Amino acid sequence: MLKFDTEMFYKHVGDEALALRGQIEAIVDEVTAKGYKNIFLIGSGGTIAMMYPFEYILKSQSTIEVHAEIAAELLVMNHRKLSKDSVCIFASVTGTTKETVAAAQYCKDQGATTIGLVAMPNTPLANTVDYCISTGREKYAFDVFFIHLYMLTFRFMHNHGEFPEYEQFAKEVVRLPEGMVAAMESFDQKAEAFAIKHKDTAYHMLTGAGILWGNTYSYGMCILEEMQWIRSKTIHAAEFFHGTLELLEKDTSLILFKGEDETRPLVDRVERFAENITDELFIIDTKDFSLDGISEPFRKFFAVSVNWAVLGRISVFLERERNHPLETRRYYRKMEY
Q: Residues 147-185: pLDDT tens digits?
């Protein structure tokens, strides 16, 4: 596959990420023993988007109180639920995102317990949080973070007496990297065809819900806009019929993210409507991928990783077709703001 090293992927997202299971469980067990009232999931840009699936999982599967917050807003909003009894989980690939680092220090100053997912140790965020979880590599960092967020989220639920299937779930996480690679391989031609067809498309709508809403938001903002300078609009499937539908026309590109959780009917509804209007409807459905070794009840949770993996195939082909490196920026981390 173009710009993909299968052996390296298995090493980083499989062996190295999974090797931290014991460390992650020990952290959660220690925090649980100490006691807490709520969990905050905090990030900036792509890393707050990656928290949204886990906020949804906790809200829909657990009685644990959870809040997903944008780091910069948390710093100024005087959140009344944040206290010394909060557990605050942060993510930053570089460990240097200034708003996230500042939010981690702010939460520590409130007496909260802080946990950081950071690609590289000995970075500002890594050195600020109480517990740092790091593989020491930036390559495939989002895929690794998703693995670690599964472990954190479901261990907290298990310790809360709400997820007795944890041991089986943890065993199946081990099979997830294989399923992701298989999904990418089966999707590759479709991804390339999309990139070739849409290399000059100036505007895309993206719609998703539930566990895949974070990926929907992130792909439009972080990949199409930031990395490819393509205008996009991300619309929650539940809200699609409250404004944006009026802008859908015969040649409008609409990308649907279909997962397998309780919100799937919301995306189905958008699909039924859109297929009668636009000729440019593109559906990414995690049900299309077999995921050998993954139990049916767990598929909906792992959809976030599978969806993100296949989206990455679109990204590398867009990069090639548009001759626009994904690393190219005009303003981000280049100008003060």
A: 999 999 999 999 999 999 999 999 999 999 999 999 999
Task: Assess whether 279 and 138 both reside in one domain.
Answer: no
> Which structural domain, as residue segments, surrounds residue 25?
6-173
Q: What CA–CA distance (Å, rounded) separates 328 from 170?
A: 37
For residue 327, being part of any structural domain is answered with: no
**Arithmetic mean of pLDDT, 233-247:** 96
Here the CATH number for the domain that contains residue 101 is 3.40.50.10490
- The residue from 142, 173, 204 where one domain ends is 173
Q: Confidence band (pLDDT; 50, 70, 90) for 332?
A: confident
- The verdict on residue 337 lying in a domain is no
The pTM assigned to this predicted structure is 0.97
Look at residues 173, 193, 226 and tell me which one is the last residue of a structural domain: 173
